[in-house]
């Protein structure tokens, strides 16, 4: 088998707390991340050279978004390069062709790029029959970026690789608490509710938000211990700790995001919160019908909006 399709899912943050920047510039985080079923498609093809050599592997990336880089700045490319450099000797020589059909908005706080990186690592693990377990996959993902290991965990839970599924792994989880640089993961119970994600037509730089957050006054922080407890008990009390401290910067500096949050709060949602550093805002509903109707209303108002579910 030399060709597979991997679904690469988006995430939202049910909470984010951020500490002061450390010496290396990184802000330690304590956050709960939830995988959604909204996804990009990542098609992977491996074409063998059949010339008897080993370890000489090329990578080619194509996407349906003309503005995305397809070279070493693309996380899917980086992931394939990492796998080829680490495991190429085991798989003779040839070309990895990656075709990404993007649906997840880019630079939106939904970890779309991170998901693509994780999808390529999972995919090549299966395509090349490497037999790496999820712990090893997550370690490789951590070399690519902070959100990538969580994407790997959630993708393993959903297990959408066609035609051959990946190995089942007890560590697989669609929701996790992430600490440190966001790469230390503890699987937790997630939410099982319809979700709408929406974004205004602006971009927000994650770097700018993290740099700006140090000088913001944070009025409330999530109690992540309590959040995890409430999620485990399927209690609506969990919503009290759906708090994202990065809102303190983004909502203040990007009024379009604050306005969207306000608009979404008036659609009958149980909870509305910004995801990541923004500009995407998500809303949780009790019924899919309510989510779909809210999504229509947001589109009528000119927002890019999608209804989706969480991965169970
Ligand atoms: P995260 O939550 O992981 O920080 P995000 O949702 O805020 O991510 P992404 O969609 O991952 O943002 O994109 C962030 C940047 O990564 C973009 O500027 C984009 O150019 C770059 N990027 C690299 N590879 C990809 C990819 N495969 N898909 C989307 N963006 C990518």
Automatic annotation (TrEMBL):
The keyword Glycosyltransferase does not apply. This is 4-diphosphocytidyl-2-C-methyl-D-erythritol kinase. Residues 74-154 form the GHMP kinase N-terminal domain. One of its GO terms (molecular function) is ATP binding. GO terms for biological process: isopentenyl diphosphate biosynthetic process, methylerythritol 4-phosphate pathway; terpenoid biosynthetic process. InterPro entries: GHMP_kinase_C_dom, GHMP_kinase_C_sf, GHMP_kinase_N_dom, IspE, Ribosomal_Su5_D2-typ_SF, Ribsml_uS5_D2-typ_fold_subgr. Catalyzes the phosphorylation of the position 2 hydroxy group of 4-diphosphocytidyl-2C-methyl-D-erythritol. Residues 232-303 form the GHMP kinase C-terminal domain. Belongs to the GHMP kinase family. IspE subfamily. Its EC number is 2.7.1.148. It catalyses: 4-CDP-2-C-methyl-D-erythritol + ATP = 4-CDP-2-C-methyl-D-erythritol 2-phosphate + ADP + H(+). The active site is at residues 11, 147. Pfam families: GHMP_kinases_C, GHMP_kinases_N. SUPFAM superfamilies: GHMP Kinase, C-terminal domain (SSF55060), Ribosomal protein S5 domain 2-like (SSF54211). The keyword Ribonucleoprotein does not apply. ATP binds at residues 105-115. Pathway: Isoprenoid biosynthesis; isopentenyl diphosphate biosynthesis via DXP pathway; isopentenyl diphosphate from 1-deoxy-D-xylulose 5-phosphate: step 3/6. Keywords: ATP-binding, Isoprene biosynthesis, Kinase, Nucleotide-binding, Transferase. It comes from the Bacteria. It comes from Aminicella lysinilytica.
């Amino acid at each position: 088998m030399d060709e597979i399709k991997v679904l690469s899912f988006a995430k939202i943050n049910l909470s984010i707390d951020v500490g002061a920047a450390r010496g290396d510039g990184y802000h330690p985080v304590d956050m709960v991340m939830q995988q959604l079923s909204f996804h990009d498609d990542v098609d992977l093809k491996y074409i063998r050279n059949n010339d008897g050599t080993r370890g000489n592997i090329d990578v080619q990336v194509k996407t349906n978004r003309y503005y995305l880089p397809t070279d070493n700045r693309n996380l899917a490319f980086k992931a394939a390069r990492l796998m080829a450099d680490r495991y190429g000797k085991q798989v003779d020589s040839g070309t990895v062709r990656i075709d990404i059909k993007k649906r997840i908005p880019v630079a939106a706080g939904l970890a779309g790029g991170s998901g693509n990186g994780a999808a390529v690592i999972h995919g090549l693990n299966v395509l090349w029959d490497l037999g790496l377990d999820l712990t090893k996959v997550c370690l490789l993902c951590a070399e690519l970026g902070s959100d990538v290991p969580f994407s790997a965990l959630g993708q393993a839970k959903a297990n959408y690789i066609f035609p051959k599924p990946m190995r089942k792994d007890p560590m697989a989880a669609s929701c996790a608490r992430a600490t440190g640089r966001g790469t230390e993961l503890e699987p937790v119970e997630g939410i099982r509710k319809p979700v709408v994600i929406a974004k205004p037509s602006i971009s927000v730089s994650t770097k700018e938000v993290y740099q700006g957050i140090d000088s913001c006054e944070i009025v409330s922080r999530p109690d992540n211990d309590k959040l995890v407890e409430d999620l485990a008990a399927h209690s609506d009390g969990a919503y009290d700790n759906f708090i994202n401290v990065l809102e303190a910067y983004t909502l203040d500096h990007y009024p379009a995001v604050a306005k969207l949050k306000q608009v979404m709060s008036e659609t009958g949602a149980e909870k509305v919160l910004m995801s990541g550093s923004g500009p995407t805002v998500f809303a949780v509903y009790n019924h899919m019908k309510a989510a779909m109707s809210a999504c229509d209303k947001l589109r009528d108002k000119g927002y890019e909006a999608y209804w989706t579910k969480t991965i169970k």
